[in-house]
Amino acid sequence: MTKVHLLLLLMVIVCALSVVTSQNKARKLFAELQKEKDRAQQMEVEWGQLQLEQSTWAMPARVEKIAVDKLQMQLPKGRQIQFIRAEELNAALTQP
Fold first, then answer.
1. What pTM was estimated for this model as a whole?
2. pLDDT (0 to 100) of residue 18
C-alpha cells in the first residue's frame, strides 16, 4: 500500500470511530432525556395532587369547623360588629 492509501485508511478508521462515539453519546443523551421527561411527568402528577390537597385543607367548612371546635371561636353577634369607613381608617393610620 502506498502512503496515500494508509492515510485514507487511517482517516476512515478515525471517522468510523467518531461516528460510533457520537452515536453512543446521542443514545446516552436520549436515555437521559427520557428519564427527565418521566421525572417531569411525575412532578406534574404530584403538583396536581398537592393542589387537590391544598383545596381540601382550605375548604371554608373545614376551616370553620376547626375554628369552632379547636379554637373555641364563634361568629360575632350583630352588636359586636363595627363598620369603619376607608377615609377614617386612612386618617387614623396617617396621624402621628
1. 0.54
2. 96
